[in-house]
Design a protein that fits this description.
heterodimer; A: alpha/beta; Rossmann fold; four-stranded parallel sheet; globular; B: mainly alpha; 2 domains; 19 helices; 2 strands
Chain lengths: ~110, ~450
């Protein structure tokens, strides 16, 4: 089970992306759980996930979100604005897999 | 052309993004905004339903309901009417989340402190509820916010510090937590109570000509009354819409940021419209329902243009954007066209809403359309939302459609200019033989 947190604003538009990501995961036979939440809720829940994604409309919070994620060892990245705009769940799910894979590699090197 | 666009967006990224970003990432503003969305808005919306029932738009119905109007308003008064109380909880709770500390305890404490701050220090059994009620709702929002922030900031400093009551490790954690909360709770209670006692030892002459005891919310209201009046003006509306759209132009959620600052004023004005038949204009619906048609920036017409565009990128975005646009969600437009950080589209993205706000302000000011009285989710589709927001004035819907036509007209030349840029890029990309041109680079 891969647990993803998407940090965003009202969660209204992100819910559309979440639907599309879940469909992409099912097609590739992965178990996926995605939650869209505000920066405050994210701070309370960061321990309970595998990957953190940042929606483009709150990129001004990027630094503080990244700092917190890295402090508890969670991979974190921005969602490409165009992927977000076109609700391209497949591309964002690829990004999640890529983040997890590079985290694994990092561990092996250490 | 392409080079100029890139230079423009470089400039925006370097000089416009950092100051706007600092404003938007203030943790108190974020906590207030979260508190409003998560804790207050659902109660306001539910309560508004009863307000609509108590004030039906049709005269015959109004006559029928008149004998029961006070009774129908009870659920409204105890939900919408207590919003500052819930906001105090929400602000303390959300701020505690940002500070990564347990949120429920400061939340509940903030509600108690808010009540202490709102009641004059005297024999409470002889207090009339009607005197206090307004200050637990629209007129007490500022107190709610301040008490919420104060509570969490004090409680979190006591947690884990040496000034808390320590118990042996064998005591269950829940018991320990209760004792940990005791010291800051007693301190804060004493502080607010003494402050309120001092304030309520003074009196003022009310609108009824009688002497009343002063309270903290009444004092703050008297201090900030000029600000509420100033906020409900055309220059203030102009500043707010420009700030919203400048933030969105650099890809930051503008409505969010401005809401966190202006909301107490918008709600105070709206409550006055709803309860006292006031004529305030600059309220939450003034922006969400009457300016941001199809999403921030009034981008509904762009979606229609995109569906038949010559550019493949715009057609793709248009298809995705159509469904959300019906519910006034336009992130696909903002990040897909894109509007954000795009020097061509940023121009109308700011000035189209400015013109719409100008038109609407004067339409409301001269009384062509009833002023907004009802709050609703911003996702209610255009047409219906204008009717509901004005308490059942069909001219509210007509105004929305008029504004849509204005938006369609003003966006068109900019849309065509941007479409030409994209079509040229797409043609260059599909003919790799003529690779003298640089590869197409997206803006943003």
């Amino acid at each position: 089970m891969i647990r993803v947190l998407i940090v965003c604003s009202w969660g209204m538009s992100t819910s559309l992306l979440v639907e599309s990501m879940l469909a992409a995961a099912v097609a590739r036979k992965y178990e996926l759980a995605v939650e869209a939440l505000s920066a405050g809720e994210y701070a309370a829940k960061v321990e309970e996930c595998d990957v953190v994604l940042i929606a483009p409309q709150i990129r001004h919070l990027r630094k503080s979100i990244e700092k917190l994620a890295l402090s508890v060892g969670k991979p974190v990245a921005m969602i490409e604005p165009f992927h977000y705009a076109t609700m391209n769940g497949q591309a964002v799910f690829e990004q999640v897999l890529h983040l997890l894979a590079s985290k694994q590699e990092g561990k092996e090197e250490v | 052309m392409s080079v100029m666009i890139e230079r423009g967006s470089d400039w925006v990224e370097r000089y416009l993004v950092p100051p706007l970003g600092i404003l938007a990432s203030n943790v108190y503003l974020q906590a207030v905004r979260d508190a409003f969305i998560i804790f207050t808005l659902p109660l306001i919306l539910a309560g508004s339903l009863f307000l609509i029932i108590a004030n039906p738009p049709v005269q015959a119905l109004a006559n029928l309901i008149a004998p029961y109007q006070s009774q129908i308003l009870v659920p409204f008064q105890l939900s919408f009417g207590l919003m500052a109380l819930f906001l105090a909880f929400g602000v303390a709770y959300s701020l505690a989340q940002y500070r990564r500390t347990e949120p429920v305890q400061p939340g509940v404490l903030a509600m108690v402190l808010f009540l202490v701050a709102s009641m004059p220090v005297r024999d409470l059994t002889t207090l009339s509820l009607g005197d206090i009620l307004p200050y637990l709702g629209g007129e007490g929002l500022l107190v709610g916010i301040l008490v919420g922030i104060l509570t969490t900031e004090v409680v979190r400093r006591f947690r884990g510090s040496r000034f808390t009551i320590r118990l042996p490790k064998s005591v269950p954690p829940n018991v320990t937590r209760a004792f940990e909360a005791l010291v800051p709770a007693v301190l804060l209670l004493t502080f607010i109570w003494v402050l309120e006692w001092f304030v309520s030892s003074h009196t003022f002459v009310g609108t009824d000509g009688h002497l009343h005891q002063l309270t903290i919310p009444i004092l703050l209201e008297r201090i900030f009354q000029p600000l509420i009046l100033v906020q409900d003006s055309y220059p203030a509306a102009l500043i707010e819409i420009v700030l919203m759209m400048l933030l969105w132009s650099v890809g930051i959620h503008g409505m969010n940021v401005v809401t966190a600052i202006a909301l107490p004023f918008w709600l105070a004005t709206l409550t006055n419209n709803a309860v006292n038949h006031g004529h305030g204009i600059v309220t939450e619906p003034f922006f969400h329902i009457f300016a941001h048609l199809g999403g921030s920036g009034a981008t509904w017409p762009l979606v229609v243009y995109m569906l038949r565009s010559r550019s493949a990128q715009l057609r793709t975005v248009g298809k995705v954007a159509l469904g959300p646009a019906i519910f006034n969600i336009n992130e696909p437009v903002t990040f897909g066209v894109p509007m954000a950080l795009n020097p061509i589209m940023m121009i109308p993205f700011v000035f189209v809403p400015v013109i719409i706000v100008t038109i609407n302000y004067f339409v409301f000011a001269v009384g062509l359309v009833h002023v907004p009285v009802v709050l609703q989710p911003f996702t209610v589709p255009i047409g219906l939302s204008g009717f509901v927001a004005t308490g059942g004035d069909i001219r509210g819907s007509l105004l929305q459609f008029f504004d849509l036509a204005v938006s369609a007209l003003l966006y068109y030349p900019f849309f065509k200019a941007w479409e030409r840029v994209l079509v040229a890029r797409e043609e260059a990309a599909s003919q790799p033989e003529e690779s003298a041109k640089p590869a197409p680079v997206g803006v943003g």
